[in-house]
Design a protein that fits this description.
Number of strands: 15
Order of helices and strands: HEEEEEEEEEEEEEEEH
Distance between the termini: 40 Å
Strand content: over 45%
CATH superfamily: Galactose-binding domain-like
CATH class: Mainly Beta
CATH topology: Jelly Rolls
Largest sheet: 7 strands, antiparallel
Number of helices: 2
Helix content: 10-25%
Structural class: alpha+beta
Shape: globular
Number of domains: 1
CATH architecture: Sandwich
């Protein structure tokens, strides 16, 4: 039988990793329109199975409602001390993971030398850090901002933030959100495959052998 060299193992493991990583995503997992049977609500009207999405809230001030049905929206003021905006939590059931892949925001503000905010930022935070997903400019007109994301794997609970920055006046600064959606895929956390376990073991063996070879070259 022909021996498999270290180079072949590395190539095979790389191909396996790429194959496992490139999965198609794109289902609607959470959708907020703030309309429930003709009345206002802070809760999402769509939530995927095996997860939960919280009511939307303000990051640091009182959240308010604006507009009339069927065009409900939420609004926050106070951009004098940096950013402000909206927040909500996504909680994934135990044993499942979320591959986040897209978003859509229908948003407006009061940008300018007096007012704000001038930019929006979509991010999420876990117990360790905050990760920026996307950002863009805010106009005074209702504008839909949407896009795809490099799939990010999330588990447990994460807090999502829609932040506005660039405001300098508490009285005139405001940000309004009419609609919000997140896309992705909820799936069972996969068990390690035989091939994946082989790769982990093979790469560990290669690293250990490499370290031993280096030690044998040391001259005392």
């Amino acid at each position: 039988m022909k021996a498999i060299n270290n180079h072949s193992i590395r190539i095979g493991c790389t191909i396996l990793y790429i194959a496992l990583s490139n999965t198609a995503f794109g289902s609607l997992i959470a959708h907020y329109t703030f309309d429930e049977n003709g009345g206002f609500t802070y809760s999402p009207d769509v939530t995927a199975s095996n997860m939960a999405a919280s009511e939307i809230r303000s990051q640091k001030s009182t959240i308010q409602t604006t507009s009339e049905p069927p065009d409900y929206a939420v609004l926050v003021y106070d951009f004098t001390s940096g950013s402000n905006g909206f927040a909500f939590d996504i909680s994934i059931d135990s044993g499942y993971q979320l591959a986040l892949s897209g978003y859509s925001l229908e948003i407006a503000g009061n940008p300018g030398p007096v007012g704000g905010p001038d930019k929006w930022h979509l991010s999420y935070a876990d117990s360790i850090s905050e990760i920026l997903l996307s950002e863009g400019s805010i106009t005074q007109f209702k504008t839909t901002n949407s896009g795809s994301l490099t799939p990010r794997i999330l588990a447990g609970q994460s807090t999502f933030l829609i932040s506005g920055t660039g405001g300098i006046d508490a009285g005139l600064g405001a940000m309004v959100l009419w609609e919000l959606s997140l896309e992705g895929d909820i799936a069972v956390i996969p068990e390690p495959t035989v091939s994946a376990l082989f790769c982990i073991g093979a790469l560990f063996h290669i690293g250990k052998k490499h370290n031993n070879d280096n030690r044998s070259r040391i001259i005392v």
